[in-house]
Each structure stands twice: as C-alpha cells, then as structure tokens.
Amino acid sequence: MELALYCPVYGYYEAEKDTVGRTGDFYTSVSVGSLFGQLLAFQFAAWLEQMPDKDCRLQLAEAGAHNGQLAKDILECFETKFPALFSRIEYIIIEPSPVRRKWQEKALAKFDGKVSWVNELAGLNINGVIFSNELLDAFPIQRFGWDAQQKQWFEWGVTKDGARFAWARMPGTVANLCPPELEAVLPDGYIVEKSPAAEDWWRNAARVLRRGKLMAIDYGLTEAELFSPERTNGTLRGYHRHHATSDVLADPGEQDLTAHVNFPAIKQVGENEGLHTDRFFRQSMFLMKILNWDVKRQEIKMDQKFGRQLQSLIHPEHLGRAFRVLIQSRNI
Fold it and tell me: Within 13 Å, how many C-alpha atoms sit on residue 174's CB side?
C-alpha cells in the first residue's frame, strides 16, 4: 500500500496530476469549495484566542496539504477576518513529497514568507494547532482475518499470481484483536485492519505539540463500529473515477487506496502521550457548531453558493456522515 501510493516514481500520490474533484477520482471537503476552509479558520481563530500568552508566535501546522487549496482558503480567511491573529501565525506544511510541495508553493505564492515547509514532524515545537484532513486513512495498513474453525487471527499478505497480485494467508497467528465473547460470534474470514503507521504519526504529532490542539478529520470508525456485521470484508477500498472497488490489488499506482481510521486506537495513542480528548463527533456536527457561532457574529455570507457547499459538507448522503473529527489538546 505504501509503495502503491507513495513510490516516488509510480506512486498514485506522486503522479503529476490532480486526483481530486470532478475530473479526478474522488471528492473531498476541500474540493466542494472555500466554505470548509473558512469554517476551519473560524474554529482555529477561536482556539488561538484562548492561548494564554497573547504575544507569543503561533503556528498552524497542516499535514497532508495536497495541492495547497485548504491552506489558501484558511489563510485568506485569517487575513480578512482575523488580521491581528494573521500577523502572529506561521503556517507550517508537513510535506515529504517534492511533487505536492511544488503544487503547494504555486497555490500559496501570495503568502510568501507566511508559509514554511518541513519534511516531517521531528524538530517541530508547536504552539497552536496541528491538523490533517483525509491523511490518516491513506497510511499503510495491516489486514487481519479471523479463522473461526481454529479460533485464531492471522495476517493477510500479498503475493504474485501470474501477472497479478493476490492475497495470501501468512503463516503463524497474531494476538487477539477483540474480546473472546465477540470472537465467539464472528463469521469465518471476518477482516479488520490496523495502521501502526497512522498511530506512530499521531504519537509523534502529540510529542511536538507544546500547547494547543491536535485534530484529524477523516473517514473512520467508532469502537462500536470496529466489529460490525456490515463490514465483514474490512474497509480497505480503491477509488478510481469516483467509483469504489474492493479489488485493491489491481492497477497499483493507478487508483487511490484508503481504509477507515481506527479512531479508538488513535484516541488512546494521544491520551497515552498526555493529551486530553476534547471531542469526537461527525463532521456535520463539528461544522454546524462552528457555523452557529459564526452566524451569530454575522461573519459568513449566506447565499446560494453557501447553501450548496454546506449541503455537501453536512448532508449524510454526501460528506457529513462518513467523516469523523477527533480533537485532542494539551495545556488549554
């Protein structure tokens, strides 16, 4: 999965084409329009205004900034609506890909001097907000299956079958992934995924957050949803031209690969690093909470364009139900 997505030569995310939007393979909250970034900017401003030291330098650190459009929408909103905070913030993009960094530099040229780039979290010391939108679901995963006859878990690997890739059961067993009483009723072949890479990323992000918020917006599962009759084949999917497929081993590098985030595991990682969990809820609730506050302040222009974007962001048949928001904090 890591090679299929991030190989410098053949990786899906390293291609010199944009894969998001009408002409790409999938839609995101950012591709809907600028409203998403504006609402995030209002929330970030509210958090930054709570910071105890009113004269300190503040950071907004975005990971997985893709083509830079979300960063642009956020910074433009700060510049017009929160000029005092805008003068104090440094926008940091965590981006290991030279291809995507080139896109971002082009999109953010007007903010030269305000935006900086780093390849990784190590070395940062954030006083503000670290956030990601649709990042954790693109980290490599491990895929596990349940053998009901042997009453044990095993790991799925990938092998070659002629000119194609195929799933292959790996030898040995793995530790229990759920309580014994749940294993007793699981169907044979039930599949679950874990992402140690996503957990490691969250752990490292927590460690560089000196004061402020750590937030992820992503496809993901609650604890109750991790083992559900609706997901016997797991959540790993491929996306191509806005169509989902379970044939994730086909055409490596030519389709997006994604798996739902195990939010209970991510949440626990943050708490183990001393973070406090503030909220975990659906994107629709998160955005409406911000919007209700903004409308009272009469900051958002409520026109037809606004209505179309809002419907896409919060409607359960669009993006409102699928996306979850996890917010954790330190020293606020």
Answer: 17
